[in-house]
Design a protein that fits this description.
Length: 550
């Protein structure tokens, strides 16, 4: 064949090779987006079939899977914990209470306010019924380790249904949420509520019982009292503790094992197995009843506790690969934590920085595990003491019992008292995003109680039912959140996808350079190149203008 025909053939071969490489590369990307990856033999490999030794263009994956756009969970918006006044058994509310509900519900993807109460359905709390309207989503919670009760009055209700049975013998017009919240504050020992709050942080052991050294804790109606010398009291008969970290757990050797659940000791590991076994039973019941989402334990202070729970419940390995990422296996996709300021001085005590830090910790979890949807901060308020999650009430600079309404006074830090606090907290929460642009905050509940659990008076309404300044500020902050909330965004391409992209580019460049080098070394190609150069030189000489002097 002629040199020109050979050159055309070579160029066509180069084009064919490049097109083939391009097709393989984009086939891999397309397969990845459909939930599988192509191995070098062209077969589709599903994520759960990929092991560390799977030859996949010699690149190890860093995450199993991420949430797709249609899998993004909802933003639950603003809500409440604590009874609301002036709602009737039939679900009708007074004008002022309805004004509060309407003011906060717009922050939710469902256009409904959320409500929860440390239990599986609305109940009576201190003789006050927890009636709700149809504008509420009730978020059930399993307070302790479990497993959850499946049937009956004390059992888990079906998810997503309105007009469910409450715990007062009636029917609630609210809608049962599609999320089940995890156990309450297992990361701290907590304290016995009532007259021994801050003093009693453990149940009486056998020694205390034998020596008749187990003082009685009372929820209401008794003067402040002290626990025994080891911080123990009877917190069962007439009171209860702040969280499940106070109690022992069946199958665990330590008296109060939950705060040290992730200590990596043989005793802790045995306890982890027991806790996870009961959680898996709870998850199975919840999934069967239609729950789409599960949350982590609701931690008081330690977000890393929630991360450890996710990694164990979802079967995540050291490389970030998780065996399952949804409710079917008990995998939580929302991180829940609580937050309180101290002594009406959130700046002095570093409370705002602590809050922002916890949100950033959740962001890091979302980045490491893209199936995690965000944070639900479902206890927010102000503690009537200077430091810590558990402390002695009325021991700070602004004791509640010295304030006219038992709330925070107007100060330089809080010009409008607690109204300033709630505005600043929500402003911080709304500002935190992951590196790939996803908002972290997905739920927020104000602790609508009066001096319960060592707090100030945090009620959003006055005694006559009218909205107070705090209630108006909560409406304004939730409305602001509703106006600034973006729809859930999918995670950006993972490190694995980015690695594939760069690998494809590099392979293409290597092939092009290799072909160019081979052609340059080929005698036939050099001959073709020399003839081409000679032909171009002849054409240039023939087309040049004739010199007038020749």
């Amino acid at each position: 064949p002629s040199p020109s025909v050979s050159l055309i053939g070579v160029l066509r071969a180069m084009s064919s090779v490049l097109c083939t490489l391009r097709a393989i590369f984009f086939s891999c990307l397309a397969a990845r987006s459909q939930g599988c990856l192509r191995n070098p033999q062209g077969s589709c490999v599903l994520p759960h079939d990929i092991g560390d030794d799977t030859p996949l263009l010699q690149v190890r994956r860093t995450t199993l899977s991420g949430a797709k756009v249609d899998e993004a969970g909802p933003s639950w918006g603003c809500g409440l914990v604590g009874s609301l006044p002036n709602i009737n058994a039939d679900g009708t509310a007074s004008a002022e209470t309805q004004r509060l509900i309407d003011g906060i519900k717009s922050s939710s993807s469902f256009n409904k306010a959320t409500y929860w109460n440390w239990n599986l359905a609305p109940q009576e709390d201190g003789g006050v019924p927890e009636y709700l309207t149809e504008d509420f989503i009730f978020m059930p919670e399993i307070w302790g380790v479990g497993p959850v009760v499946e049937h009956g009055t004390d059992g888990l209700r079906d998810a997503g249904k309105a007009n469910f049975q409450d715990m007062m013998g009636g029917t609630s017009p609210a809608t049962m949420a599609t999320i089940l919240l995890g156990m309450n504050e297992p990361d701290i020992y907590g304290s016995c509520l009532g007259n021994m709050f801050g003093s009693c942080n453990a149940p009486c052991d056998a020694e205390a019982m034998w020596n008749n050294d187990c003082p009685m804790g009372w929820m209401e109606g008794h003067a402040p009292a002290e626990a025994n010398s080891r911080g123990q009291c009877d917190c069962v008969t007439h009171s209860s503790p702040t969280g499940c970290g106070f109690w022992g757990v069946e199958g665990c050797a330590v008296a109060q094992p939950l705060p040290g659940l992730w200590d990596e000791t043989p005793e802790a590991e045995q306890c982890v197995d027991s806790v996870m076994s009961q959680w898996k039973q709870t998850a199975a019941v919840a999934y069967q009843k239609g729950y789409k989402y599960l949350s982590t334990p609701m931690v008081a202070v330690n977000v890393s506790y929630a991360r450890n729970f996710i990694e164990r419940a979802c079967g995540c390995d050291a490389s970030g690969n998780c065996a399952c990422t949804d409710a079917s296996c008990g995998c939580p996709v929302y991180v829940v934590f609580h937050f309180y300021g101290n002594d009406c001085q959130p700046k002095k005590h570093g409370n705002y920085k602590t809050f922002e830090g916890r949100l950033h910790e959740v962001a890091e979890i979302m980045e490491a595990y893209p199936f995690v949807q965000g944070a639900i901060v479902n206890e927010v308020g102000m503690l009537n003491c200077p430091a810590g999650a558990i402390c002695i009430p009325n021991s700070g600079d602004y004791p509640a019992d010295k304030q006219p309404d038992h709330g925070c006074p107007s100060t330089k830090e809080l010009p409008n008292g607690l109204a300033t606090f709630i505005e600043e907290v929500l402003d911080i929460a709304m500002s935190v995003k992951t590196k790939d642009g996803r908002y972290v905050l997905k739920g927020f509940s104000w602790f609508n109680e009066n001096e319960a659990g060592g707090t100030y008076n945090l009620k959003l309404q006055n005694a006559d039912g009218t909205l107070n300044e705090l209630g108006k500020a909560y409406i304004a902050a939730c409305t602001k959140w509703a106006g600034g909330t973006q729809p859930p965004q999918p995670p950006q391409p993972s490190k694995h996808q980015s690695s594939l992209t760069w690998l494809g580019v590099c392979l293409a460049l290597v092939v092009v350079v290799a072909i160019a080098v081979l052609l340059h070394r080929s005698p036939q190609f050099r001959q073709i190149w020399a003839r081409g150069q000679g032909q171009r030189q002849q054409q240039a000489e023939l087309s040049a203008p004739v010199n007038a002097g020749s």
